[in-house]
Give the backbone structure.
Amino acid sequence: GEAKFSLEGEKMEEISVGIIGSTLERHCIYLQKELEHQGAQVVILDNTPDHPYPLTFCKGDSHYEDLDLSNTKVYFLRALFLPTPAFDASTIEVQMKADGYLAYAAERERYAAWLSWLKSAPFHGRVIVNPVDTLLIHFAKPYHLECLRAAGVPVPETLVTSDPEKVLAFSQDRDIVYKPVAGGA
């Protein structure tokens, strides 16, 4: 079955939270500061491709670099720098020129290790907020809106188009919010 997790009765300062993303990404930093302000112990697990793979895990024991993650049961998956759906080799271009396929294979190994650790979390009592299955469809914002509508959640009328005339017509007699289909604004 699925792992059960409850914060009931626990003080915030006893809660250890991991944020998976980048130590340089503003949303990770904002979330870290807010959680620390509320008394939580927070660690950002940086998984950017320009860092060596920082996780070590075996039989439920997990370490991020030298930090034991055994007391960290809640994680927020902000960003997973993985080659999905296509592999962007620009970050390891020099290594690719020097090492060829070995650099690509090393990047795939990094991806597979992060993915395995995240997908195995429930078996070890860890909760991933915004889990991999959700993150991988993060760029499908119109799909998410349809899921909300199907669940009966009121969603404002939404237009997805690259046609400026349709945007102008849609914006008549209403306030609009522009957001990229893939998010990020």
User: Anything to note?
Assistant: The two ends are 37 Å apart (CA to CA). Residues 141-171 form one domain. The chain has two domains: 12-135, 141-171. Residues 75 and 140 are 22 Å apart (CA to CA).
